[in-house]
Specification:
alpha/beta, 8-stranded parallel barrel, 31% helix, globular
Length: 359
């Protein structure tokens, strides 16, 4: 959600990045879920319409009984996908001391959301996160090291973690090999080895969740099925942008993404997109600032315009909205999504095709 400088690799791969996407499972991203099994009248999903289910703890709620009713809630607004983001801690020396588990008998917090989503006719994306709390890093984009030994330790521990989670969640429909790890991108060979092992561990479609500032610097999109972007793009620098200004901002962004996607022979999925109830959310959508009720109209307009832009853009196959919490406390301190006002906005676009209109 931030924008420090990252690094990009320069390794050349000839015509690899021009090859068509051969894996049939990439259709998991290109075509969203079929009609849910309840028989309710819903439009056919031809986009990935997803919601990230976060937790108020370290992720235990994903394995609790409440996860099923929570998925019911997000399905009600038109979602065809959900996502979870299991954690592992990161230390300043590069070590990742995650709790080992048997991937053939994985913990409930990893696999129960998959079962509950599939039982309801939804698909699921797994987006492992490195938890930087208590480390020297203020966010994932700052994770980087000074010595070769630290880098080697990091990539070995990360490989063990990400492959274990991929194997444990192999019934999922999509899997993210890394999220916002901007300063690691210069280590292209290490990333390609990790991606190859993840391929062996899961049949899920694969992506990487690039920070919006660094997606063009990722050197291994050709090894993945879809371009993943944490879509906290600045949309307008106006103090109180109106709908035409927001629509123009997204039009410019989509032009940029369309050209990039064509050059990579890939489509784009927004692995995260969200807005705080903030008067500066249009210019700094990644920021944690939360204002009062006076910012609700801007928050709603931003979300409606973004969702409408995604629906209209062929190069972008869909979006995962950040973030929704399990019952009974579905709204968190920031990036509030499960409010009545925003639930209505999401449903309007996803279920009814209602586009924004002035006033």
């Amino acid at each position: 959600m931030h924008n420090p400088e990252g690094m990009a690799g320069t390794h050349e791969h000839g015509d690899d990045r021009k090859r068509p996407m051969a894996r049939a499972l990439v259709l998991a991203f290109a075509v969203a879920s079929a009609h849910a099994s309840s028989g309710a009248a819903e439009p056919r999903h031809d986009k990935v319409r997803g919601i990230v289910i976060s937790t108020h703890t370290d992720g235990r709620e994903w394995g609790w009984d409440v996860i099923g009713p929570t998925i019911d809630d997000v399905r009600e607004v038109g979602a065809g996908w959900v996502a979870t983001h299991p954690y592992a801690p990161i230390r300043g020396d590069g070590s990742i001391p995650f709790a080992e588990f048997d991937p053939d008998e994985p913990p409930a917090y990893l696999v129960r959301p998959i079962r509950e989503a599939h039982e309801r006719g939804l698909k699921i994306l797994i987006t492992p996160h490195l938890a930087y709390w208590g480390s020297p890093f203020s966010w994932r984009g700052e994770i980087g090291f000074e010595t070769d030994a630290q880098w080697e330790r990091f990539f070995e521990d990360y490989r063990r973690f990400i492959v274990a989670v991929a194997r444990a969640t192999r019934e999922a429909d999509g899997f993210v090999v890394g999220s916002e790890l901007d300063l690691t991108l210069g280590h292209e060979d290490a990333w390609r080895r990790i991606i190859a092992e993840v391929r062996e561990a899961t049949p899920a479609a694969l992506t990487y969740a690039a920070n919006w500032t660094d997606y063009a610097r990722v050197p291994f999109w050709d090894a993945l099925d879809v371009i993943g972007i944490q879509a906290y793009f600045p949309i307008s620098d106006r103090a109180s942008p109106d709908l035409p200004a927001l629509e123009a901002g997204w039009s410019a962004r989509m032009d940029e993404l369309r050209r990039f996607a064509a050059g990579q022979n890939r489509k784009v999925v927004f692995t995260e997109l969200g807005y705080n109830r903030s008067l500066t959310a249009a210019e700094e959508p990644w920021a944690y600032r939360v204002d009062g009720p006076e910012a609700e109209a801007l928050q709603e307009s931003l979300l409606r315009v973004a969702l409408t832009a995604v629906e209209a853009e062929p190069a972008v196959v869909g979006v995962f909205l950040w973030k929704w919490f399990p019952q009974p406390h579905s709204v968190g301190r920031n990036f509030q999504l499960a409010t009545p006002r925003l639930k209505r906005a999401i449903s309007d676009v996803w279920k009814h095709g209602v586009v924004p209109s002035p006033g």
